[in-house]
Amino acid sequence: MRVQLGGTVVTNDRAAVYRRWGYNDVCCPKDVRDALDSPEDQEGLIFEVNSGGGSVYLGLEMYTLLRNSQRHVTVEIQSIAASAASVFASGADTVRISPVANVMIHRASSQAWGNEQDMNEAGQMLRTVDESILNAYEYKCQGKTDRETLHDLMRNETFFTAQEAVERGFADTILWEDQDAETKLTSSAVAMAGGMRQAFAALPPIEELMRREQEGTQGAGEPENAGGVEDNTGNPENETEERKMPMTLDELTKDNPELLAEIRTAAAQAERERLSAIDNMSMAGFEDLISAAKEDPEATAETVAVQIVARQKKQGKKFLGDRDKDVKDGKVDQVETSTPAAGENSQDELNAVLDDVFPTK
Prior knowledge:
The chain is an alpha/beta fold. It is 54% helix and 12% strand. Helix 2 (29-37) packs parallel to helix 3 (56-68) and helix 8 (181-199) runs antiparallel to helix 14 (301-329). The chain starts with a strand and ends with a helix. The chain contains 15 helices and 8 strands.
């Protein structure tokens, strides 16, 4: 049985509200509880993780549920397990990671307001949370990374490649290691394309959705109208709330400055996350793709991943073509030698080139 844990980690109640309005890129502790209560099957229980994180306390709750389960639980990181998601992922018995996926860890953060005592209390709370996070990481990474090193990595807000995640102990194996190189690359691109979009999906302010539900401006459970699609009854009294809201920047600034500020903050955060995700795809020889993607507001980490895979496959084929040409031009093929199995050398050459760019160890 496969269960998706993607998007922002939110409370059970907020997840229910978002999903009623068609925003499904969220996960919550109830998702884990429901999955653990489901009947056993032959595949076992596999959680597909594509999450940039969220509430650390909810992440700790999900971690505890996974660790406390009597069932064997597998986490499959398809694109990223960051922040709170890296915490709950550590609670699984087995963690598998895609060759193109990342793990990110950092210290807990929060907001505080008040006097000196309030600030001190907030600082003490954050230090306690950091210790809780370290407990989860230390247990998962035991034998590979010690607590002091983990603390340093958290302080530096560290991203790990799949290989580094295995070396540090955050993951146990890399997906498809036993597959041939071309199949491995194709599978990796599919995982990245499907996961990164889910991990960083933008969500509207929960307060706005809850206000609409309380006012009855739009029926809950009708996500098709959540984007402002006109009601197909043709009755002007059934206009959606979005169409009644200010339609220009000046009107929005005047009538709802708080909402405008939230929108700007969310947009800035989304852009920072987009650029960070693209930076994490960077590797030698593909700098032009990374630079172009940053300039293109429509580009995402998954589109860059697909471009890198496509170019690498093309380079591999060109390498083999040039090698065959050199062999023919130099009449090397006329020299007597032992004959390997058909296609053996070509496959070995291609695997060597691809493994150099996508190492598995």
